[in-house]
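The data layer described in this paper is built around a simple, fixed record for each protein. We quote a single record here, exactly as it is kept in our systems:
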Amino acid sequence: MPSYKRRSFYLLCASALVPALICSTGPAHARVHHTGKTQTKQTPVAPAPKTALRVPHDLEGHSAESMSIRASRRAQGGGMMVHHTEAKTISTVTQDYISKQAPTVTPGVLVSSLPGVQATNEGPLSTTAETIHIRGLDQTQIGMVYEGIPLADPFTYGAYTSAMVDNENLGSVSVSQGSSDLTAPVYNADGAQMTLSLRHPADKMTAYAEASGGTHSTNKEFVRFDTGEIGHSGVRAFASGSYSSANLWRGPGQMDRWHVDAAIEKRWAPKSSSELIFGYNKANQTEWLYPTLAQWNTYGTGYNTHGTYTKGDTLYYKLNTKATNAVVGALKNHFDFGHGLTLDAEPYAIETFGPNNYGVNIPASNGYVGTQQYSSLNGYEGQTGNVTAISIHPWVQTSSGINLVGAWHRGFNTLKLSYWYSYAVHTEYQNHYPVNASGQYTENNGYLTAFNNVSVSQYNINGFQQLNAIGLEDQVKLFHDRLTIDAGLRANMISRSFSQDLPGANFKSVENMFVPIPQVLISYQFDQKNQIYVNGTTGYRAPSSFQAQVPVYSFTSANRASLPLTNFQPEYMIGEEIGYRHSGDIMFNVALFNYNLTHHQITSVSYLPNSTIMISQPIDAGGESAQGVQAEISTRPWHHISAYASGQFMHTRVGNNIAYQGDYLRTKGKQEVASPKFTGALGLTYDDGTNFANFNLRYTDSQYATLMNDQSIPSYITSDISLGRYLPKIGRIRPKAMLSLMNVGDSHYLAQVNGFSGNATTTRGVYGKTLSASQPTYSVGTGFAAVVSVSGTFE
């Protein structure tokens, strides 16, 4: 089915589903999952997991809203820490914390205070893929899962978390810093996993509305309606919708986002249920520019796109926009057959599509398409110089799959058998439309062509990926469940194919991979409050992006702008952890970790000359190792104040010299890029049931941006504050008001490395070749912003 017909079909389904939900749907909710995992119970304004809170019996009989507020006052660390018992390091933020943050921030920013986590907040509102690092690993190495649905792009592993769910619908966000679940549907989680959990349909009919506004014309409107149980049918549902928009805080341009979340749940029995989950996202924003260090030192936050067009200006803001559109659906089933037999089955489907737009200057004569030179562009015969155009990349990607996990629990033993099948298709090409003297264009005039009406393009690709993964896991509990031993193996079989169709550059690449990932998890529970754990885990990431298999070409020569990997191998990680947990009035977790990577893949990103098109060059960086310690600690409220602190120290080392520009860079023993030695955070929360406040302070050490460690960005500190009040109840409406202040000190800083390079200064390779310099690019952290939110829950 053509992509436009698929989108029409999905939207038709959405238009049919949402009204049906709205007829009988809300956000206060109470729900218990019977999946063998931690049970949670959540409510509209400040819901909190049962694992984190103990709600006193004297609250029974009170409204869910009252229970929510009183329970949130007892949240550990203000909802920034949850007691876990898995034999690996996991950190979680709950709705208690999420509800006290600005509703416009991304899920990655919500976990940016957790140990080892860096997440870029590029503005008060952002609609594009996130930039996240965990233990020095970037978002392409982090598995992203939302209610059993893989969030990451299956080819580039871009993290489209903000496109999948509104913050108001999040129950919790968890980070597993050193490994992923053996049954998780991820193909790139070689060192970490981020899990987003939904606030599911409520037991009680409830409506919730929220309006936010702030600096840079930032605004967000959100509504959610829960049906509660419909009659005695065991059916519950919710539907929500939101609209948000803002001006870019630096430079001209704007962004806007429309989003819908919905779910229908049917409880077949006390321990069996099915839930249909749906999401729709339509977003568009002006692109950020990512400066080099020299540009940052010269212009600071003034390095941006341009508000007016002059001839040949590829930085004109209307030429540089990015769309993030998504339709997602899943049917999540849990069946308990008795006698210790359970089955989790979840089919899912996702479609994401653009386009992304950039500015570019293309030679009117003697340019190239693929490896073929044209004498002149059609319609520009006899002309010289460049034609300024908008480069439109109308990419479309669909992925679908099914994840099955069967378990048999008998006595002290639990056996799991899992199977995951995934199929993904990706299509991407470029069309270039010339702009007039005002920087405007029209598609009716047609795109630029050469030869026999061949579109002028750097690439024209089609790709597909098919994955089969089979897993076996066995868990044994001994000594009255004090000792838990969990061992498993998952075998992943991946087939990926990409074809390139350009004049003189027809190219097809087919790669097959078999990757086994075993793991062993062991924990010992001394008592209810103290636990020690140790694990040995493995993980992998298939090479990312189509550039790993097919080349990208230049407009000005027959030379390729990027080259495929010469050694197409999956990145593979072996990691070990030993940790200790304590729970109580003071809860803490400390863990020592070590990991080793082989075929470590990084991507050097740079702008194509005379354009804002970013070109990726994948690099096999060989081996890398890291050793470190991380810790987090939190308190229960004392005089309504609860505290949280986290920190990580990590040392990384590149294990070999890296092939680069026909020679080898002297990188052995260097520190890994984007891997700060120290990160830390402090959090304070106050909540007396009427007034509340939250403060977060984050520190990130300096970090290298080149493989040769010859350029870095300095350390920085940021802080955020939220102040709010639960207003007196008006009839059946309980209102709340909140002020969120981001980057309180208005620090101007480079937050993270956006595009690495081999060396920022000219250097000599191992065999004597002069290796030219290439400048890294950086993400700029948001400036000061204030957002005021007013919300109300109708019961």
Q: What stands out?
A: Residues 87 and 780 are 37 Å apart (CA to CA). Confidence is low (pLDDT under 50) at residues 1-71. The first helix runs from residue 3 to 22. The helical segments are 3-22, 64-72, 95-98, 107-110, 293-299.
